[in-house]
Design brief:
The chain contains 7 helices and 5 strands. It is an alpha/beta fold. The protein has a 5-stranded parallel beta sheet, sandwiched between helices. Helix 3 crosses helix 6. The two termini are about 15 Å apart.
Length: about 170
Amino acid sequence: MPVLYLVACGAPPTAELLSHPEAVPGLQADGWTVCVLCTPSGERFLDAAAVSIATGYPVRVEPRRPGEPDVLPSPDAVMVAPATFNTVNKWALGISDTLVLGVLNEILGAGLPIAATVWAKEELQRHPAFDRHAQSLFEAGVRFIQPEAGDAGFPWGLLRAAMKELITE
């Protein structure tokens, strides 16, 4: 089964990883082995123990110690859901000050398929740096999935569909 790293950041959709049928349960139904990595802020939205039970892997938040083996299999693709203002800006600049950012930077450089959905206030998305950084990530190969017009919920179904497409391309 292909391995999907689901990267969760500090925003409300992170709380839906297990409860939304299109999130972890749907991805697993599609044949993905799902491993969750989370920013320190994202961890507050998550029941890490429940996610670990559901996926069979620990939720990774902190980097491993030198010489310690990695507990996660290598990924075939990555989903950043939700991608926050902070994560998008730092990622585009190559900042690796958290486990998640370090992994995202490596995976972007490796050319693996990546899909992401931004979850940030409109005011933050209008910040002059944001569009430039999102565009930079897009040009580097990140596929951004936007919610459909008028849909206030997080687009788990669209992301799930995008992951099916990315892995078959």
